[in-house]
Amino acid sequence: MSKTLAERVTDLREALNITQGKLAAEIGLDKSTMSRIENGTRKVSSDEVISLANFFNVPADYLLGRTDDLIEPALVKDQLTSIRLDDLPFSYRFATKLFIDFQREQFQKDLQNGNFSSLDSSK
């Protein structure tokens, strides 16, 4: 069974590790309104759906449960040669950020441990 808008908003918010208050402030609502949206006790206006979709960078149809696909159809091309990080679906952007943070930590540890004598790989 497809998730509700309330469940999808909650999942996306929790994946970003932000509070209801922070999300509410970002899209111009108060925390109690966001709480009621996530509890499914308040209807969401079309403008609010658009604001949520823009904030999470997901299709409005995903939030509405009309699709489980986080990729906008316009991004699917026969011969895709490059793509901007901002064009990736939310879950890919989030995973990419985690990977970059992990690599940055590893690199800093290696530098502290003297594992690199130079940042130039040709030496």
What does the model show?
By secondary structure, the protein is an all-alpha fold. Helices cover 54% and strands 0% of the residues. It contains six helices and no strands. It has helices at residues 5-15, 20-27, 31-39, 46-56, 60-63, 90-112. Helix 2 crosses helix 3 (31-39). The longest helix is centred in the C-terminal third of the chain and has 23 residues, at 90-112. The chain is elongated, with a radius of gyration of 19 Å. The protein starts with a helix and ends in an 11-residue tail after the last helix.
Which band does the percent of strand residues land in?
Answer: under 5%
From the N-terminal CA to the C-terminal CA, the straight-line distance is: 57 Å
Provide the gyration radius in Å: 19 Å
Largest sheet properties: none
Stretches where pLDDT is under 50 for at least 5 consecutive residues are none
- In N-to-C order, the SSE pattern is HHHHHH
Quick description:
This protein is mainly alpha-helical.
Can you tag this structure with a few keywords?
123 residues; mainly alpha; 54% helix; elongated
Chart the SSEs and their pairings:
Elements: H1 5-15, H2 20-27, H3 31-39, H4 46-56, H5 60-63, H6 90-112
Helix pairs in contact: 2-3
